[in-house]
Amino acid sequence: MRVLLVEDDDRVAGALVPALVRRGLTMQRLPSGAGVLDRVHDVDVILLDLGLPDVDGVVLCRQIRAVSDVAVIVVSARGEVNDRVHGLRAGADDYLVKPYDVEELLARVEAVRRRRVERPAPSVPVVEVGDVRIDLARYEVLVAGEPIALSRKEFQVLALVAAAGGAVCSREQVLNEVWGHRGAAESRSLDVHVATLRTKLGRPALIETVRGVGYRLGSRRD
């Protein structure tokens, strides 16, 4: 089983990774949220700490869920009921509070993996509007059959709007899930990313602006 540990504490990671390797797991570790979305399709389970240095773990969990159905277990020192509720509502399959026993963690990893293997595999989300094809699982966008190179944030913005299926994505939702927080600089950056997306895709009407609210997927090609 391939497991990705997202944990900024070197001492925790230094003890946990060898312990899980000894129990037969193939381990990768990242000390922050950077690079996680690039690896979600290469692992079976993600162990996700919430107190990361660059992004809140709940926000990262939502970002993972926007592009993948990989099993996610939150492993965090945040043990309040509200913390657990927020983590599970963000898409986590399980929530384990630190400190925990390694054998219990292993049992939970095996349980969430078993549940996902036993249930029917979900269909891979692919959104098509005219000649634009957005493959949310493969991070791939094709326009008239030609691949379009997007930055990670550009794809994340497009994925959120596309996954909403025509419903409006508020600016607050996009800012929280892609940038991790809201502010004047992030808001300006969102405007730039949307304008760049429209230019790169060559389909300005694909992302419609709902004034004062946010964005939604358009139904026209041009």
TrEMBL record:
<keyword id="KW-0804">Transcription</keyword>
<dbReference type="InterPro" id="IPR001867">
    <property type="entry name" value="OmpR/PhoB-type_DNA-bd"/>
</dbReference>
<protein>
    <recommendedName>
        <fullName>Sensory transduction protein RegX3</fullName>
    </recommendedName>
</protein>
<dbReference type="Pfam" id="PF00486">
    <property type="entry name" value="Trans_reg_C"/>
</dbReference>
<feature type="modified residue" description="4-aspartylphosphate">
    <location>
        <position position="49"/>
    </location>
</feature>
<keyword id="KW-0597">Phosphoprotein</keyword>
<dbReference type="InterPro" id="IPR011006">
    <property type="entry name" value="CheY-like_superfamily"/>
</dbReference>
<keyword id="KW-0805">Transcription regulation</keyword>
<feature type="DNA-binding region" description="OmpR/PhoB-type">
    <location>
        <begin position="124"/>
        <end position="219"/>
    </location>
</feature>
<dbReference type="GO" id="GO:0000976">
    <property type="term" value="F:transcription cis-regulatory region binding"/>
</dbReference>
<dbReference type="InterPro" id="IPR036388">
    <property type="entry name" value="WH-like_DNA-bd_sf"/>
</dbReference>
<dbReference type="GO" id="GO:0000156">
    <property type="term" value="F:phosphorelay response regulator activity"/>
</dbReference>
<dbReference type="Pfam" id="PF00072">
    <property type="entry name" value="Response_reg"/>
</dbReference>
<feature type="domain" description="Response regulatory">
    <location>
        <begin position="2"/>
        <end position="113"/>
    </location>
</feature>
<keyword id="KW-0238">DNA-binding</keyword>
<dbReference type="InterPro" id="IPR001789">
    <property type="entry name" value="Sig_transdc_resp-reg_receiver"/>
</dbReference>
<feature type="domain" description="OmpR/PhoB-type">
    <location>
        <begin position="124"/>
        <end position="219"/>
    </location>
</feature>
<dbReference type="GO" id="GO:0032993">
    <property type="term" value="C:protein-DNA complex"/>
</dbReference>
<dbReference type="InterPro" id="IPR039420">
    <property type="entry name" value="WalR-like"/>
</dbReference>
<dbReference type="GO" id="GO:0006355">
    <property type="term" value="P:regulation of DNA-templated transcription"/>
</dbReference>
<dbReference type="GO" id="GO:0005829">
    <property type="term" value="C:cytosol"/>
</dbReference>
